[in-house]
């Protein structure tokens, strides 16, 4: 299981501050917005892809978690992928 | 020879006379416009400038005044174009550069939360500095560029630089910008009235009117409308605020498009704006007993907010309950309970309302808590299944990046692993 965070920020300082505050345990890389839109169909942030072991995207989730059940939901997606 | 010379002189004289008339016309329109602007009569100010620009197209004095007014109306794009044109004429360069500086200062330092989802754009910071500096160099004895430079220093935490600039500005005139002061005072007046127990409604209305005239930003309209809705007062005026606020918000989003790099954000901002004011209009109609308008407007807000706005869902719950439509009322209150954005008092109100709805539906009050927990769980499960997006079923495109620590991140190399790939922005 691998978590990859990709920032689409224009401002590296803002990103540095955010990463410093959040202390992510997973890799954080930068990428550009235009390419993300073109290649990955990302029209809004955050966008999350849940990808199975064959490299197939199983779920695309767009937007912040409006229902406050983020942890439960992420866990559920991962369980689904692992059981495949 | 003499005849030719006389003719040349006569032609020159008439050209000079014409240009003097031209300049006089332009400056009289400018004065008329600035006088109207000083008494907050925006329509008259803009009309005078349009008239002037018809008589003297491209006149820098008229353009500089127009840019200043456009900016006060938060029409950044129009203001910027106009001011850049005006700045080319030396006599108005200082004025035009100062107002350009104000626009860039806003974008670079003040845009955070000026509208939901908005953020400061750091690329504008050097531009603000450049514009205020150009204004100061073009007219060293003018106080306002020093105020601008002081504001930048203050925003960057260079307190002693800021105080030095303000002191210089004070020597030359005054230590702060009148337009910014007026806005701060209007905001403070609204905040005071909002905190007050039961302020006179006439005073509240006057404070709202003053604030939205000074700077028509959508949040001010929404704040004012909600203050009056909470007191169930001045409802026809609330309806007007909803109409004007929506227009102000759309204009703000369109004229500040550089705040959005992704097309999804522009659409989301326009939808959010329209949803906010549709809900305000709908709730004002409901309080006034106009059920038809209430139903249409509250439903419009729900569609645009994708049922994610707790305030709107509470309103829809109450609307449904007033029609004894218990089924829909139940759904809306359950949505409020499930939304992360709901504040605790909203949750409590929704729970109380649900208890009532369940009792009216003939359910056993003893089983309420159990029913609520089970229902919220079931809803959560349904949402999981609904949120599967458009790239599902496709292969993940290859992408090789380097992370902030300098390590390779290669999506192709992750085949065989389950991957959670999250695109985010730090705002």
Give the helix/strand layout.
The complex is a heterodimer of chains A (84) and B (427).
Chain A (H helix, E strand, L loop, with lengths): L1 E6 L4 H11 L5 E3 L2 H8 L6 E5 L5 E6 L7 H13 L2
Parallel strand pairs in A: 1-2
Antiparallel strand pairs in A: 3-4
Chain B lengths: L1 H37 L3 H14 L4 H13 L3 H11 L3 H21 L14 H14 L5 H12 L3 H14 L5 H18 L5 H14 L3 H13 L4 H21 L7 H25 L3 H14 L5 H13 L3 H13 L5 H17 L7 H19 L13 E3 L5 E3 L8 E6 L3
Antiparallel strand pairs in B: 1-2
Helix pairs in contact in B: 1-2, 1-3, 2-3, 3-4, 3-5, 4-5, 5-6, 5-7, 6-7, 7-8, 9-10, 10-11, 11-12, 11-13, 12-13, 13-14, 13-15, 14-15, 15-16, 15-17, 16-17
Keyword list:
heterodimer, A: 84 residues, alpha+beta, Glutaredoxin, two-stranded parallel sheet, globular, B: 427 residues, two-stranded antiparallel sheet, 18 helices, 3 strands
Summarize the entry for a quick read.
The complex is a heterodimer of chains A (84) and B (427). Chain A is of the alpha+beta class and 84 residues long.
Task: Give a verbal description of the structure.
- The complex is a heterodimer of chains A (84) and B (427).
- Chain A has 84 residues and is of the alpha+beta class.
- Chain A is built from three helices and four strands; from the N terminus they run E-H-E-H-E-E-H.
- In chain A, the strands form two sheets. In chain A, strands 1-2 form a two-stranded parallel ribbon.
- The longest helix of chain A has 13 residues.
- The mean pLDDT of chain A is 85.
- In chain B, strands 1-2 form a two-stranded antiparallel sheet.
- Chain B is mainly alpha-helical.
- Among the domains of chain B are: 130 residues, Serine Threonine Protein Phosphatase 5, Tetratricopeptide repeat (Alpha Horseshoe); 74 residues, no CATH class.
- In chain B, helix 3 packs antiparallel against helix 4, helix 13 runs antiparallel to helix 14 and helix 15 packs antiparallel against helix 16.
- The interface between A and B is large, with 63 and 51 residues.
